[in-house]
Amino acid sequence: xxxxxxxxxxxxxxxxxxxxxxxxxxxxxxxxxxxxxxxxxxxxxxxxxxxxxxxxxxxxxxxxxxxxxxxxxxxxxxxxxxxxxxxxxxxxxxxxxxxxxxxxxxxxxxxxxxxxxxxxxxxxxxxxxxxxxxxxxxxxxxxxxxxxxxxxxxxxxxxxxxxx
Length: 164
What we know:
Layout lengths: L9 E6 L3 E6 L5 E5 L8 E4 L1 E6 L6 E5 L2 E6 L7 E2 L5 E4 L4 E4 L10 E2 L12 E2 L10 E2 L7 H5 L5 H10 L1
Parallel strand pairs: 8-11
Antiparallel strand pairs: 1-2, 2-3, 4-10, 5-7, 6-7, 9-10, 12-13
């Protein structure tokens, strides 16, 4: 995947120690872009629970049946979905980890079902990857073959093994 350059279509929203939040001027959607090169397996950022909720929202990461966290630092919420993600929310170590090398200026992305069993707001995916699943609803709806293609957080793996 090629780095996404800042063009007239993006507006800088926030600069952090690891990257930038940018807003697509046309759509208003925000995204997080790497501020430097990250090596596969490298911890990009640590995170914590800014808030804990009993039910999911489109901004939460699931840690348990009734434990959905809002991310802190809050700028991590702008790491968007891709069916070919370049990072992963490791909920055991509370770190965002690079799944492969990530170029400076590349948009960070993760696989939403890796961290939510049954999403509050399913959506039609427009990631454009060859592996695109089309409709993203949560790990509950992945086939066994689809689930094997992704790294899933510990809670989601346990749910799949128990219910899947």
